[in-house]
Known about the structure:
Elements: H1 3-13, E1 17-19, H2 40-45, E2 49-52, E3 60-66, E4 69-75, H3 78-83, E5 115-119, E6 130-132, H4 137-140, E7 147-149, E8 156-157, E9 178-182, E10 185-188
Antiparallel strand pairs: 1-3, 2-10, 3-4, 4-5, 6-7, 7-8, 9-10
The structure holds FE2/S2 (inorganic) cluster.
FE2/S2 (inorganic) cluster is lined by residues 122, 124-127, 150, 152-155, 168-169.
Amino acid sequence: MSQAKMDKTRRNLIGATAAVGAAAGAGAAVPFVWSWWPSERAKAAGAPVEVDLSRMEPGELKIIEWRGKPVWVFRRTREMLDSLKVTAQLTDPASSASAQPDYAKNETRALKPEYMVMEGLCTHLGCSPQLKGADAKAEMGGDWAGGFYCPCHGSKFDYAGRVFKGAPAPLNLPVPPHTYLSEGTILIGEDPKGA
Ligand code: FES
């Protein structure tokens, strides 16, 4: 494959944005956004990456690259947050065995409930799970209230990246260090001051 084609494929995997539910419409894709794509120098250094939240719609997922991994920033709706209260089917509902900073070890796995930050790699064998809304219940079965689905071997995760029982993935999706620089800007790769 030519370098140009490889670059295009890579851009289609990382640096995308998608949305589900709320304003953008169920399952609707919105145009790719590249403004938070880190420079080559920043990537090489593993530098923290800023993400602009100001124009994110409820239900929208942004994918950025940090240290060679896709990191999701996901704006949750009230309904999505309410769905996190149902935990009986989860493998690690309190995230006791899963990877996240202490400040994200709570019911919503977030510093601010509205915005979820997590690594977009399945904890089974590293495939990329897909966002699936509550409207995918017929396809997903059971009590599906929306979340993420890994197409490789069928692991399901809720809107906080917590894995459902019976899935091959053993743990919840990891939460990377992150902090808020302002109301509308999040920094991936750095803990809050004093944390
Ligand atoms: S890699 Fe996700 S279920 Fe196997």
